[in-house]
Recover the amino acids of this structure.
């Protein structure tokens, strides 16, 4: 019985030795085939890397973000291909030395290259890991929005502006207030103010979304602009939506903006030329943005014109009068100031005219008539008689 056990063990050892020996012999005998298979796997990996690299370049050209891991995969492939090419070069040089490696009498050389050529696992594993990247290497990245491109105006010395800014931020910080309205005449700086606010409070919110409404608004455009924000509100994220330049009451339900007691994680900041619009949209806080007093208008004017105000004597002599005529409206100050700085008078007149005409067109017909009649009066003259006449014709 003992002899049988010994014999069985001996048979297994011999079989194992035979398998090992056969494998080692195969490395030498089929060295050429192993090397060819190795080269084939290297080429497959190179081809895959080339296809994926093309997709990466296209994604970068579009400005899209690459998916996590694809760049690490490319780096790993480059490193593995470098090692593989070093081996192929080394094997090729050995072949030259042996007048054709299949005729080489150095069995040790054949064994070494044949065995190393069978180590294709790193190559095939990288091919397997690269398969998902052949269909997708990037995620769509939204184009920069208005807030992404806005640069801080640094108007810390404009007290009227900063007072309004502080009041609005206090209202935003008040958890009992969901809708905050800002109103003021056209050109007073409401839009600029909301952008400054967005920069100031952006760290308080998961996202800040800005959309311009305008007089002739498009419901579908507003829905598109606020789509991601609306989804995130439903998911519980704290979101600030800025509705700029609202001319009439908007139905938030129609715009599919989640708000009310069930969605206090949503804050809405709206700007309008009309206080009544803010009130009609149930703003819990309504803040007026006033035009700048003369001294602050002059400070802003100097900001816009810059050093030229100090070096151009002709400009210096009329600058204060020009700043006064801007009526304390930052938009007009900005446009006029840049004109005096760049000498493009025609473009300035057109810009200011278009802004003023929009306000004029929105007036009732009687108010338009009264406005035009006012232009007939000399500067600073009492217009009370005209106002009395207007009241009579409106009865």
């Amino acid at each position: 019985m003992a002899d049988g056990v010994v014999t069985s063990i001996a048979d297994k050892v011999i079989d194992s030795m035979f398998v090992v020996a056969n494998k080692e012999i195969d490395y030498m005998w089929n060295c050429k085939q192993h090397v060819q298979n190795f080269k084939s796997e290297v080429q497959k990996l190179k081809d895959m890397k080339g296809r994926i690299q093309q997709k990466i370049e296209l994604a970068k050209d579009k400005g899209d973000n690459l998916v996590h891991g694809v760049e690490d995969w490319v780096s790993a492939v480059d490193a593995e291909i470098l090692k593989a090419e070093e081996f192929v070069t080394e094997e090729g040089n050995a072949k030259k030395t042996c007048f054709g490696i299949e005729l080489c009498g150095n069995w040790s050389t054949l064994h070494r290259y044949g065995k190393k050529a069978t180590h294709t696992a790193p190559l095939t594993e990288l091919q397997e890991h690269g398969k998902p990247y052949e269909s997708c290497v990037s995620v769509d990245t939204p184009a920069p929005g208005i807030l992404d491109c806005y640069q801080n105006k640094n108007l810390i010395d404009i007290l009227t502006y900063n007072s309004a800014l502080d009041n609005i931020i206090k209202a935003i910080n008040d958890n009992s207030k969901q809708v905050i309205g800002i109103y003021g005449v056209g050109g007073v700086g409401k839009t600029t103010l909301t952008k400054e606010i967005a920069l100031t409070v952006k760290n308080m919110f998961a996202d800040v979304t800005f959309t311009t409404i305008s007089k002739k608004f498009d419901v579908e455009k507003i829905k598109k602009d606020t789509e991601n924000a609306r989804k995130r509100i439903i998911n519980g994220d704290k979101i600030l939506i800025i509705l700029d330049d609202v001319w009439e009451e908007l139905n938030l339900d129609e715009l599919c903006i989640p708000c009310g007691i069930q969605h206090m994680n949503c804050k809405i900041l709206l700007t309008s030329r009309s206080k009544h619009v803010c009130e009609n949209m149930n703003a819990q806080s309504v803040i007026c943005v006033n035009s700048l007093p003369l001294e602050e208008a002059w400070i802003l004017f100097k900001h816009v014109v810059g050093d030229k105000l100090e070096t151009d004597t002709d400009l210096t002599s009329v600058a204060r009068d020009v700043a006064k005529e801007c009526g304390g409206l930052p938009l007009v100050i900005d446009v006029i100031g840049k004109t005096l700085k760049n000498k493009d008078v025609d473009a300035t007149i057109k810009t200011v005219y278009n802004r003023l005409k929009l306000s004029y067109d929105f007036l009732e017909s009687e108010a338009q008539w009264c406005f035009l009649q006012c232009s007939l009066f000399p500067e600073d003259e009492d217009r009370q008689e005209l106002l009395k006449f207007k009241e009579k014709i409106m009865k």
Notes: The chain has 18 helices and seven strands. The two ends are 130 Å apart (CA to CA). Residues 70 and 254 are 42 Å apart (CA to CA).
